[in-house]
């Protein structure tokens, strides 16, 4: 009887070990999420039904709506935020007018003049409350906003609105080559807020989504006297803080590190320390970002 009990005990331990071994690692989870929800939100064609010749703002199919929302929620989940945001369909028509104006004039403006081709007051209202993009539409524009390149975007305001801690809802409009993502005046109230909102985030991030500008934000924090230091596989990483300002979403500090490896066949870890913060639970935070080849 004792031998029988011992055998059962040993089998239980072995089975428990097998279950633990079969659990996916953090890297495997990050890879699966990237493949399923980032690559899975690619929009081959937006399906836009409008045209600039007749100033027809058009509409988009539900499949495009789904992909845009999937990509927004992917990026929010990546940084530890709620990934259950929705789209306010009642504002689709307004943001379609905005996207049409940007395409028709081949220009971007949050305050478009009434002399613009295809101008409408509705489109102008949408321009004042949205992230706007030209040269990319639908889900592609969401990634462009997260990247936030260009000399006018050092505060990464577009990224910060998508990763705004309070957000529970967005809206948008898109053509095949322009997009307006409604970020101001959309529903808030989210309470699933991590200790900080970093991009690239703590943990694993795919190489293609590791952009030149790094950011770190905390709701209500003050980064006026904050400093940033980084270490990598070759020691200290030179960096340049480019913004501590901007009333976009949450308070955020932005920097550009030098020599970040985004083409290695092996995982590369960078450790970040942000110090000298006020108005936050801690004055200093340290975390590690692991860049991997998906």
How would you characterize the overall build of this protein?
With 294 residues, this protein is α+β, with helices and mostly antiparallel strands. Helices cover 30% and strands 22% of the residues. The chain has seven helices and 13 strands. The protein has helices at 2-22, 26-38, 62-78, 92-105, 121-127, 138-147, 157-162, and strands at 86-87, 130-134, 169-174, 178-182, 197-199, 203-206, 214-217, 227-232, 235-236, 239-243, 252-257, 268-275, 285-292. Strands 6-13-12-8-9 form a five-stranded mixed β-sheet. It has a four-stranded mixed β-sheet with strand order 1-3-4-2. A hairpin with a 2-residue loop joins strand 8 (227-232) and strand 9. Helix 2 (26-38) packs antiparallel against helix 3, helix 3 packs parallel to helix 6 and helix 4 crosses helix 5 (121-127). The termini are far apart. The model is unreliable at 4-8 (pLDDT under 50).
């Amino acid at each position: 009887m004792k031998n029988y009990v011992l055998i059962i005990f040993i089998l239980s331990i072995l089975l428990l070990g097998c279950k633990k071994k079969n659990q996916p690692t953090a890297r495997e989870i990050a890879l699966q999420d990237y493949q399923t929800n980032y690559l899975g939100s690619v929009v081959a064609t937006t399906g836009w039904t409008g045209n600039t010749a007749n100033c027809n703002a058009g509409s988009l199919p539900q499949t495009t709506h789904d992909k845009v929302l999937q990509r927004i929620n992917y990026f929010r989940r990546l940084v530890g935020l709620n990934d259950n945001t929705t789209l306010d369909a009642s504002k689709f028509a307004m943001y379609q007018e905005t996207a049409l104006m940007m395409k028709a004039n081949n220009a971007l403006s949050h305050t478009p003049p009434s002399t613009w081709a295809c101008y409408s007051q509705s489109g102008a209202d949408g321009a004042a409350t949205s992230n706007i993009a030209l040269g990319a539409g639908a889900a592609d524009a969401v990634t462009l906003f997260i990247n936030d390149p260009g000399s006018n975007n050092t505060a990464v305001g577009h990224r910060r609105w998508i990763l705004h801690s309070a957000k529970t809802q967005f809206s948008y409009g898109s053509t095949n080559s322009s997009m307006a993502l409604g970020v101001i005046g959309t529903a808030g109230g989210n309470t699933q807020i991590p200790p900080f909102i970093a991009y690239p985030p703590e943990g694993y991030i795919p190489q293609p989504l590791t952009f030149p500008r790094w950011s770190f934000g905390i709701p209500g924090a003050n980064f006026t006297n904050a400093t940033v230091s980084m270490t990598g596989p070759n020691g200290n990483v030179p960096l340049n803080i480019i913004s501590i300002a901007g009333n976009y979403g949450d308070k955020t500090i932005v920097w550009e590190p030098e020599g970040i490896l985004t083409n290695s066949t092996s995982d590369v870890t960078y450790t970040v320390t942000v110090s000298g913060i006020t108005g936050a639970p801690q004055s200093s935070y340290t975390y590690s970002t692991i860049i991997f080849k998906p």
